[in-house]
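Protein fold
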Amino acid sequence: MKTAMVCVMALLSLGALAKADEVIMPTVDNKSAKSDAFALDFSADAEYYGFADKLFVINPTVGFKLFEVLDASVALPVYNNTTETGIGDLKLAANYGLFQSKTGLFGSDSSTLSIGAEVCVPLAVDFASDNTNLTGNLAFGMNWGKIALNQTGSYLFDSTGNVYVPVFGGFVDETVFSADSSLSYAVSDSFKVGVDFSQNYTGNTKYLSLGPAVNWEISHNAVLDLSVGFPVEQQDMLYGDCDYKVSAGLAFKF
């Protein structure tokens, strides 16, 4: 009888150990790894330009993030210039993170650097480009505690044809260089305030603007951006001067 009881106790112990092993299986870590490997987001940006003929732009975008370093997106902007409404070029973009969260640059807590490209494919619409065009992109960011600095730059290569560029009010047929500088302060973990400085050049035309910006993380998967830009300098604007620019963006992450 004593031997039988010992066998029963041993079997129960082995069963308990097996059950414990099942409990500590890293199921949560597997889910986390999958979410880190792939992420999906949807955003809709709206821009209003204060030209004599008001210009309104909506830019819905679907984005994909792979392994925290590669971003790809598809966008199809919609334009309205008080006389007509229509879609623009189909935009296919990809950005690759060269490094992330590297400390020590200029004494920052963390920094990021990414490069990318955007291909715009013209459709048979009123706001379409004459030819397929290519834009090169660069983005750099640093933060010191609650203070963050972000710098982006883009260069639209001349594709020997007209391209619709909202910041200039219409079509341009030369290369375009744009740079945006943003300095922000985190009031809380979910709310940031700052200032944006934008520079845009094509041929002899240039448009420089400066204004306040707000970033609000409404929830863990929803972010709202608001900004207003007033001209600091504008020269030889092709479709008349622009008195201001108002931007609003809402993004959802899945």
About this structure: The chain has a mean pLDDT of 86. Residues 39-253 form a domain with the Porin fold (CATH 2.40.160.40).
